[in-house]
Structure formats: C-alpha cells, structure tokens
Amino acid sequence: MPTIDLLNNDPRKKTLSAEPKTGMNTLSGEGTAATEQAKPRHPEKAHRPDNPIQRKPDWIRVKAPGSPGWKETHSIVKENGLVTVCEEAGCPNLGECWDKKHATFMIMGDTCTRACAFCNVKTGMPGPLDASEPDYVATATAKLGLKHVVVTSVDRDDLADGGAEHFAQTIRAIREKSPSTTIEILTPDFLRKEGALEVVVAAKPDVFNHNLETVPGKYLKVRPGARYFHSIRLLQRVKELDPTIFTKSGIMVGLGEERNEVLQLMDDLRSADVDFITIGQYLQPTKKHHAVMGFVTPEEFKSYETIAYTKGFLMVSSSPLTRSSHHAGEDFARLKAARAQKNA
Fold first, then answer.
1. Which end of the chain is less packed: N or C, by CB atoms within 10 Å?
2. What is the DSSP letter of 121?
3. DSSP symbol at 214
C-alpha cells in the first residue's frame, strides 16, 4: 500500500466532497440534498479567520484506505446505517484500522452540541435518538467478529441525561449478541447531568475512557464547553463506583501547551487513579480549526511515555499518530496483563 500525506494530499477529502449528500438525517428522517449541501459543517467557525494548515513532517505518514478489509468494514458499517468517529473526525488511522475490521462506533447521531476548536465532527442541534441504534451497533459488532469494540458519541447537552441510558442500552445489546466481546466506551463529560455517570458505570463496560484533550490552560480556546477538573472528577468517580473498570484518558499535543503542563496533567490523572493515558499529535482538520502550534517529535513522544510509566500508569500510548481507539484491542490485552502483574 502506498503512503500518503494526509494533510496535504488526502484522497478521502476528494471522495467526501464529490459524494452527493442524500439529505436524509438517519435520526429525524428529514432533509434534502440542497439543504444538506447548503449547511456549513461548523457554522460557529464559518466567520473565523483562516489558520493556514502547515505541511506535516516526514514522520507523519499513513497508508491510504482501500484494501479488501477496509471495503468489507465500510460495507458493514453502511449496511447497518451506523456513524463512525473514524470517518466523522477524519482519523488518519482509518485505513489501517478498517483493514483489520476495527471501527469505533459513534452513537447518538453525527451532530455534536459542543463546538471544540480542534474537532471535525459536525456541530449543531441533533435530531432525536434512534431507539434501534443499540441493536444496530450490536449487530455490526457481531458481523465484524470484534473481540474488543469501542463505542463513543457526540456530546448531547440537549438530552436530560446526556445520552447515558443510550450508552447503557448499547453496552447491554453488545453483551447479548457478543458475550465474549470486551467493551470500551469513550464518553462525553455529562456536565450538569446528575446521575448520568452512575447509569453508564452500572452497565459495566470493561474500559471507561474520557479524554481531557488538552492541558487546563488551553480549555478556554480549545475546549470551551468543558471544565477540566470536572473531567478529572468524572474519571475518579468511575473508579469509586466500580474499581474493576479500567479508566483511560487522552490528550493531543501541538496546541501550544508547555511540557511542564503535560507532566502536571499526568499527575492529575494519576490522582484520579486513571490506568491508561494516550498522547497524540494534534492535526488541524480545516483552516477554520485551531492552528497546529508545533509538531512534537517521536523522541519527545517517547520521553512522555517513559515519564508516564514512572508516574504509575499501567499503560501508555504516546506517538504522533496515537489516537484514543488506535490499537484498542491489543492495548486492552496489555492493560489486563499489567494489572495482573501489579496485583501478583
């Protein structure tokens, strides 16, 4: 397979822009081709000044999607009417993961109620939840033969429980159809949604992931709808409710953070007894998104990994192309082994 420069020559962008929009919102059943094409993907960013996209360094290259495995995964996802964060967020590892039949399902629609400066997921007012979605996700998980599945979602601040019960229903549906599959969830922060976290934890996912995304000093510009210490407390509360659940969190670097801020963030996560940290390079989706303030070298990522292990994390994934769900199945096996060794 050839390697490609995703920021400067991404064939997926041409494919996506060339495909006509159906105009059908799979959740609400409304819309037309004309209105879908007219709506900006990120209306809150439309009038912001452009941030030029920097050329990526040589160490950031990936294989182009299009293998037989990728096509089969793509077919199963589309047949079940599912949304994946792999596509919506423009993940650079899509070709590799889908070739292995690994996909991260994104539930509760494709429209997020937040407007984070780094994220390529569509923003706006979402439609109602699809009550059949948990079963569709479970069916796709079984068809793909997944030993480990990752389920994430958009933020749903419009819902009374932030979508907690929908998460729980999805976990239960997967358990019913694929009892041996381990389940990892990547959740929103359930900010001001009392009791929501307890509903999700009671469904007993194997891994509870909630990303901090960046250091606290960058929240106002990068993640304005969230609260750093609320996210820390969320992760801590998971362990208080069920110590058997593995907890995980991830950040991006290259947003202008200082090294000492990253190290302090590691300490904050360890104070919440988080087991697993992921650290990856921020890649700017469009000119309207937050600019890349610097590319972190592979050597710097390795240094972060070494330090994180000394701070007590059971598992660390730190590299330019690390993403929350990248190699999630393999990492889960290592995570279990690390806990077993620690408790031996």
1. C
2. S
3. S
Say if pTM beats, i.e. exceeds, 0.85: no
Mean pLDDT over residues 147-161, rounded?
95
Measured distance CA(104)–CA(135) in Å, rounded: 15
| 3-class state of residue 185 by DSSP | strand
Cα 202 to Cα 252: distance, rounded to the nearest angstrom: 29
CA 157/CA 222 separation, integer angstroms: 18
The model's pLDDT over 266-284, given as tens digits with 9 standing for 90+, comes to: 999 999 999 999 999 999 9
Predicted local distance difference test score (pLDDT) of residue 104: 81
Q: Are 144 and 101 in contact (CB under 8 A)?
A: yes
Nearest of 267, 232, 247, 158 to residue 200 by alpha carbon: 247
Distance of CA 27 to the CA centre of its chain: 21
DSSP string of 9-23?
Answer: S-HHHHHHHHSPP--
Helices (H) and strands (E) in the chain, counts: 13, 11
For position 327, what pLDDT does the model report? 77
**C-alpha–C-alpha distance, residues 276 and 247, integer Å:** 6
DSSP assignment string, 66-77: --HHHHHHHHHH
